[in-house]
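Researcher: I need the complex structure. Ligand is uridine-5'-diphosphate-glucuronic acid. Inputs:
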Amino acid sequence: MKGGGAYISIGSSTSGINSMGSGSGSGSGSKMTLGKSVKMYLTIFIATTCIYMVLYQYHMSREPFAPSEVGKPPLYIITPTYRRPEQLAELTRLGYTLKHVANLLWLVIEDANKTNPLVAHTLDRIGVPYEYMVAPMPEKYKQTKKAKPRGVSNRNRGLEYLRQHATEGVLYFADDDNTYDISIFEQMRYISKVGMWPVGLVTKTGVSSPIIRNGKLDGYYDGWIGGRKYPVDMAGFAVNIKFLRQRPHAQMPFKPGYEEDGFLRSLAPLDNDEIDLLADECRDILTWHTQTKKNPPAQALNKTRYSNTNLVHIDKLLVRP
Ligand code: UGA
Ligand code: MN
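Model: Output:
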């Protein structure tokens, strides 16, 4: 795991008292000397204790999370990403949101054949514990003129990672361009199987949400139902890891528009009353399906005109498709 020093506990540094040796009063037996050396050891002991306490206070004040927070069920956030001018901006915004959340591992998975040092550098700087992996979209989908299954190979790679490395906690698919209120992360930690909640800014209905009637899940509200059993947005559900591991074949289909539905169906058997309803029983909106305006690729820098300027350095930070 890279990044983030959130879980480093204070080292059991031995106090100076042991390393001081027994310098004075070497067995003379005199009352004076004995009293003196006891006083000296006491002083050293108190001084060391004080220094230790001050250091500990300082250390704790630098810790982003209280020990009680670190003990909570872990969260695994799977974020698909891909190379484009907006990429580092998206990851920066999402990363600093995640930085408010304790006991979290961010699985950043790029639709690419190799990792990009600029992405790794951005993740390092943010300081959220992360794994950065690649999972390219299969060539046949890349070539198609029709809608592409965006982020699917990335998410399936994330599921594979979790099957190898995670035993408990909760998994959430967080696209790199969406907007998340951090309280949803605290709520999703305690999902027993699958949890769902509303997502703002989805299609013509303005929101995609489970419909709750008399306290029970009673269908879905979404601008496009499309024959789906689970017409929900990617940002609107999370899954318990133990439950996922009991479904070894669960994965996301390469089927544009049906990624969420296909994945949730692959978690069968799952009864509607086993779905936890978050965000105040789906009366609140804590996640939004936002979209960033696409930017044209930056033009090439005139290296003759701008040689020996900062622009040469900046140019290396631009993500060009
Ligand atoms: C919506 C859904 O929220 C996605 O989860 C779903 O995969 C997508 O539609 C779909 O049905 O194809 P949308 O906002 O339209 O998402 O798509 P993007 O934000 O462009 O992509 C979703 C995720 O996949 C993002 O995290 C993005 O970084 C990643 N992505 C996108 C790739 O990894 N490769 C791509 O070529 C495009
Ligand atoms: Mn998106």
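Model: Summary of the prediction. Residues 4-28 have pLDDT under 50 and may be disordered.
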